[in-house]
Amino acid sequence: MTSLRQCRMPDLLRMSLCNLDPLTENYDTHFYIEYMAKWPSLFTIAENQHGEIIGYIMGKVEEDPALFQFSENYLPWHGHVTALTVAPQYRRLGIAKLLTRAFEQACDNQNAWFVDLFVRASNDRAINMYKGMGYVFPDWRVSDHSIELFDSYSVFRRVVDYYSDNPTGKGTGEDAFDMRKPLKRDTNRKHIRENGEDHRISPEDIYHG
Question: How far is the C-alpha of 170 from the C-alpha of 188, rounded, in Å?
Fold first, then answer.
């Protein structure tokens, strides 16, 4: 049985099942504390039946300064996933999807337009996981209970050489896919696009506040 709850300060000393995994990026303690202080509802942990932390997600809600609002790369109020990880022995059990849904709901509560995240262009497993995170369930508003499909994540743009290293050996840097999922506020789906893999920008086009 897996349960979700908001991260607390003592939890930072109990994340070894996740953070000792070589695929998980680790941050200094101040970084985690900053997220807990500024965006507490967006830092969620998953525990197993023994109370062990087996996964977590943390992120933030933000927008670019108003002076950039006429730029094609302007980011309105949105949620951003900074880190999502699940302990290796608990993967492929749907825990990442549970954590992501909790994050999306928290961003919906803050009236965000969408949730976005960055993933390496070579990380096919992660890309396919996010693309499979649409929700399908019966629509009880109609008499035949037609199946209703909610959006999954899709690539919005490619950030060229976003990562300074390239484990594929095909160059000095690696591209990132900026993947997005529209939330309830984006009723017209104006913050997603088709063929986002072909829409290239440079890291300098992204505002780093």
Answer: 38
CA 60 vs. chain centroid, Å, equals 10
Q: Which run of H or of E encompasses 55? A: strand 53-62
| Element holding 141 (H helix, E strand) | none
pLDDT in tens, 160-174: 999 887 766 666 789
Name the residue among 209, 156, 206 with its Cα closest to residue 181.
156
Contact 108, 100 (CB under 8 A): no
Beta-carbon neighbour count of residue 158 at 10 Å? Answer: 17
Q: Give which of 148, 145, 152 is closest to 127, Cα–Cα.
A: 152
Residue 208 falls in which region: left (phi positive, over 0), alpha (psi -120 to 50) or beta: beta
Residue 142's pLDDT is 47
79 contacts 115 by C-beta, under 8 angstroms: yes
At 151 the pLDDT is 79
Distance CA 58, CA 36 (A): 9
- The first and second tokens of residue 84, run together, are 């999502």
Tokens representing residue 32 in the block: 């985690």
- The DSSP line for 119-158 is EETT-HHHHHHHHT---EEE-TTSTT--EEE----EEEEE
pLDDT band at residue 69 using 50, 70 and 90 as cut-offs = confident
Mean pLDDT, rounded, for 89-110: 94
Reduced to 3 states (helix: H, G, I; strand: E, B; else coil), residue 107 is: helix
